[in-house]
Write a structure and sequence with these properties.
Elements: H1 3-8, E1 12-16, E2 26-32, E3 38-44, H2 47-64, E4 70-76, H3 81-95, E5 122-127, E6 144-148, H4 158-171, E7 178-182, H5 188-196, E8 203-206, H6 212-229, E9 236-241, H7 244-248, H8 250-254, E10 262-265, H9 267-274, H10 286-299, E11 302-305, H11 314-327, E12 331-334, H12 338-346, H13 351-369, E13 375-377, E14 380-382, H14 384-400, H15 405-414
Length: 415
């Protein structure tokens, strides 16, 4: 075969990003070769110190993928090993090379399994194709991180992003944060699950859910993938309601599976579906948000509010969070680390609320110890619903770390 014709048969794939505004990533190009082994061209600010380590990792990844002859060109912007592995694998897949296996990084120890009713006051969104946000995300103290494969990822980068997220679940320590992944709309979301579920995420967010059948499809996929890959720990679900039809079917969706830990609402898409403007006060979405709250509580799952989109408006976020808690939501999403502390403050009871609840709980415990069926606080009789509300508030405060050990022990005895 003439050299020009042979060159036209070569396969080439590229993945990742590089440039002056890029960090913790790399751009890699993999070109097929008929022979000659692997040749690597590397440009990196840290090449003097880590160049050979990077080259060796690339060789190992290519070998695991069944690529023995290739020319690899890389521009490194400080990518960590889990990112390098994901980008090389994406480039190989895009070139149509290799054995279609995966090249997984060394795993960090899995955190403890996530409880279905754990605290979810704040959930920090992290764009799935931006690894620079991953490594320090847990240090900001969110209750959860959301590795997002949907709206924050360009359609042309979905395949590469799911490999970065897959590797991050395996190799990044997110601290005490629950590890959530927002998949794409079905059917593309099934391809996400095939990569994600074997890495034991804590919770899957299902976008734009309108019927219970969509939840069933995700449940069936998770069950099959988990069985095939040997995953035994619980993987929870949180459907996102983002349309008028989704809101109308809120209770059917919330009760579609025992895997559902909560339901949430996406206000940008919901208001777009209505054809109205999303405002800072939220009057246009009040009905929908209350429908989510009512459906969630009726189904005994958590009600989680949407994000507050104006990062610079901390006072507006505080007001929104306080109003959200008063409506019956237990948390909300956030798009910037600076929102986390404000959200936690907004979803915490005031000191006077907590003190009153502790007094009611103490009176309830005293009445139980004395065998009394009526609870009184001073000269006032306390109705059973008020006692139950106080017990819930104290328990939630305990989980937030707002109740001291003595009060927590008393409340534990009441429970």
């Amino acid at each position: 075969m003439p050299a020009a014709a042979e060159a036209s048969q070569l396969k080439r794939g590229e993945a990742g990003r590089a440039g002056s505004d890029v960090r913790s990533d790399l751009r890699v190009s993999v070109e097929d070769r008929a022979s000659g082994g692997v040749e690597i061209e590397l440009r990196s600010r840290v090449a003097l110190y880590y160049g050979e380590n990077i080259r060796q990792q690339v060789r190992d990844v290519l070998h695991a993928l069944g690529v023995e002859h290739a020319f690899v060109s890389m521009v490194d912007e400080g990518a960590l090993p889990f990112v390098i592995a994901a980008r090389v694998e994406a480039a190989v897949r895009r070139a149509g090379l290799g054995n279609q296996k995966s090249a997984l990084p060394e795993p960090v120890p899995l955190p403890a399994a996530s409880a279905k009713d754990r605290l979810r006051r704040s959930r920090l969104y992290l764009p799935g194709n931006e690894p620079k946000y991953f490594v320090n995300a847990g240090l900001h103290g969110p209750d959860a991180v959301i590795l997002d494969l949907e709206d924050s990822v360009h359609h042309a980068e979905k395949d590469a992003a799911r490999l970065v997220v897959r590797n991050a679940l395996r190799a990044v320590d997110f601290g005490t944060a629950e590890r959530m992944v927002r998949i794409n709309q079905l059917p593309l979301g099934i391809a996400d699950l095939e990569e994600i579920i074997p890495q034991s995420p804590d919770l899957i967010l299902i976008p734009k859910v309108e019927t219970a059948a969509q939840v069933w499809e995700v449940c069936d996929a998770i069950t099959g993938i988990a069985k095939q890959s040997g995953v035994t720990r619980a993987i929870w679900l949180m459907p996102i309601l983002e349309s008028a039809l989704g809101i109308e079917n809120a209770f059917a969706i919330a009760t579609a599976s025992d895997r559902i830990a909560g339901i949430t609402i996406g206000l940008e898409d919901y208001t777009a579906d209505l054809g109205v403007v999303k405002t800072a006060t939220g009057g246009e979405s009040l009905f929908a948000r209350m429908r989510v709250v009512n459906a969630a509580h009726a189904a005994h799952v958590q009600a989680i509010d949407s994000v507050y989109g104006d990062v610079a408006d901390s006072e507006g976020l505080q007001r929104w969070g306080e109003a959200s808690r008063a409506m019956g939501f237990e948390g909300m999403g956030c798009i910037h680390p600076m929102q986390i502390e404000i959200i936690h403050r907004a979803f915490a009871p005031s000191q006077s609320e907590l003190e009153k609840a502790l007094k009611i709980v103490a009176a309830y415990e005293d009445a139980r110890a004395r065998g009394l069926g009526v609870v009184s606080l001073g000269s006032k009789m306390i109705d059973a619903p008020v006692v139950q509300r106080a017990l819930k508030l104290v328990e939630r405060s305990r989980r937030m770390g707002l109740v001291n050990a003595e009060a927590s022990a008393r409340e534990g005895g009441a429970a």
